[in-house]
Amino acid sequence: MAEPYHKKYATIITDEMENSAKARGTGIAKRSPAYIETKMDEGKAVIALTQDGTWAGFCYIEAWGHGKYVANSGLIVAPEFRKYGLARMIKQEIFKLSRKKYPDSKIFGLTTGAAVMKINSGLGYIPVSYADLTDDNEFWKGCQSCVNYEILMSKNRQNCLCTAMLYDPEAKKNHVEELALRKDFKKEIKLFDRWVRLKKYVMLKINKSKASVFSIF
């Protein structure tokens, strides 16, 4: 768990969040170093460091709707430590921390990453519609800095390039199994990636088509 003395890494973390989003060509809800520092002070973050103190990864918790919903946000791994399974370990730790601090809360996430979708599925998340997420306006305000915010608002906050996933502690096991991703999705990352690319293609194509129509008038 991240502690207050880890605040010296806050700027490095936020810079990498932004750089990573730009490299992927995806949107991101920007967070300031001060915001990350607050999460560390509150004990609502997980940080990964090497033995010599080099920053390797990070993730934090946000609570919405008076604690009814919890989001594990800002998952980021330093470039030199990627493809070693560190993201999965961080997600597992932040998930456990979320369950400890908010045992009755639903845990959700919005992601454009196929790898994160696969990790979430392994933790018990299921893909859901945006209507199943928090209606807390403060959460959705966080999307304003995302490059895809216009698409989100054009869909009345009911869809966007991100895929919504939810873990419900009250869901019956059988119900979860019925709604969970197909078994082959759990085994094959390429299927997640194919889904993400397909959704991105469809959403962007629809948005461009609307822009073309409006440009006529």
From TrEMBL:
<dbReference type="InterPro" id="IPR016181">
    <property type="entry name" value="Acyl_CoA_acyltransferase"/>
</dbReference>
<dbReference type="Pfam" id="PF00583">
    <property type="entry name" value="Acetyltransf_1"/>
</dbReference>
<protein>
    <recommendedName>
        <fullName>N-acetyltransferase domain-containing protein</fullName>
    </recommendedName>
</protein>
<dbReference type="GO" id="GO:0016747">
    <property type="term" value="F:acyltransferase activity, transferring groups other than amino-acyl groups"/>
</dbReference>
<dbReference type="InterPro" id="IPR000182">
    <property type="entry name" value="GNAT_dom"/>
</dbReference>
<feature type="domain" description="N-acetyltransferase">
    <location>
        <begin position="37"/>
        <end position="101"/>
    </location>
</feature>
